[in-house]
Amino acid sequence: MTKLKIFILLFVASGCGSIQFEQQSLYDRYEEISIKEKGPMVIYQDAAGTMWNELAECGDFEITNEVSAFSGNNCIKIEWNKGRGCEWAGFGNSFNNWNPIDLSEARHKKALSFYVRSIGSDTVKSIPIVANLEDFGGGGSYYFIDANKYLNGLQIDSTWKQIIVPLWDFPVNEEEVDIYSIKQMKFQLEGAGAFYLDEISIIDYSKEQYNQMRENVELMKPKGNVNQTIYRKNRFLNDAWGYENNDCQDLKEVEKEGNKVIYWKYKADCSWSQWGINWNDWYQINLRGVIDQAKISFRVKAGKGSQFQISLEDYRGHSVKVYEGKETNGWQEVEIPLSKINITQSGLVLDQIKQLKFQGSSDGEVYFDNIKITKK
Questions:
Q1: HSE-CB for 227 with a 13 A CA cutoff
Q2: What DSSP letter does each residue of 216-278 carry, written as one string?
Q3: Residues near 352 by Cβ (< 8 Å), separated by ≥ 6?
Q4: Which residues pair with 130 in a beta bridge?
Q5: 76 and 158 in contact (C-beta within 8 Å)?
């Protein structure tokens, strides 16, 4: 009986050798879901219940009609303060009905767009939100929404302003995010804030459109005054630095020929043979929009062997040479068109000018008067 069982098993096993199994791939990627080639992919648009949120004790998230929405009848009202002790706060939603989206190529021609306004009459220049392209494995591409780069305007106020963040700016690290299988746009709240939001979507966008938007914002910025007095008589000690007693130089306001002027005597081999002057009480000075129209002018009288340099500096550390000075035969009138100065290449930020700076390069004695910016 035992021999019969063994024979049957051997027969069955030998018969199995003629069976062929079809090869199957256990996992490749999610089945590719088509996304719209044109038009916005909606994250939020005029309806309650279309987004999830998690603010816990940190704040409130609601759909409201207490103000006029940018579009439709309702908008999002969100207020938060992470200082209240919550570990995480944020909100989000899919923009493809919770189907995975391959953004590996599409992200180079799309952007996150939404409209924002402040609650109340406050104006702010930033919105402390980190956007995250989250994949189905919980990984993500996190990116801070910098209003200085992406706000179509100068500040966030009580009127609707658009923010457009190109998806190509989001960092894509294959170890951190599966860009071929994006689940949703997730928004992580930082610090504290209070805003209305509306019309959150992924839109078609190009680098040309972004550059045009930044040019438009640049034109919105206030222009400086063509006429600005740099040396304000009787205010020299308030406007200048470098006049303190030292072994490098003697700097002061003096009477000469019945007129107050700046007197500067310096040693060139000394690191402190330099000084600067600000004509806006040490606040930022605005030269935006006046470069092609204005000139720097002054009167100078430099003694024998004097050599010095005058530069414009901004509050970001950029500097550009304005004038190379040397000895003169009595008083000399100097006029320098701002358009002749190498401002563009220097990176000088024109609405953040800090000072006009003077630096000696050989032992000298110099007088200055009537330093100003005027129309050409």
A1: 0
A2: HHHHHSPPPPS-EESS-TT-HHHHEE--S--SSEEEEEEEETTEEEEEEEE-TTSTT-EEEE-
A3: 284, 314, 315, 316
A4: 144, 188
A5: no
Whole-number Å distance between alpha carbons of 159 and 127? 15
What 3-state class would DSSP assign to 14? Answer: helix
Residue 102 CB partners (closer than 8 Å, separation 6+): 32, 35, 179, 180, 181, 182
As a whole number, the mean pLDDT across the chain is 89
Token reading at 247: 């072994």
* Distance from the first to the final alpha carbon of the chain: 119
**Any alpha helices (H) in the chain, and if so which ranges?**
2-15, 147-150, 207-220, 236-239, 343-346
How many of the other CB atoms lie within 10 Å of CB of 38?
6
Over the stretch 254-303, which tens digit does the pLDDT of each residue have?
998 889 999 999 998 888 899 999 999 999 999 999 999 999 999 999 99
Residue 59: name the closest of 145, 183, 155, 187 by CA. Answer: 187
- How far apart are the C-alpha atoms of 65 and 196, rounded to whole Å? 10
| Encoded tokens for 221 | 């910025």
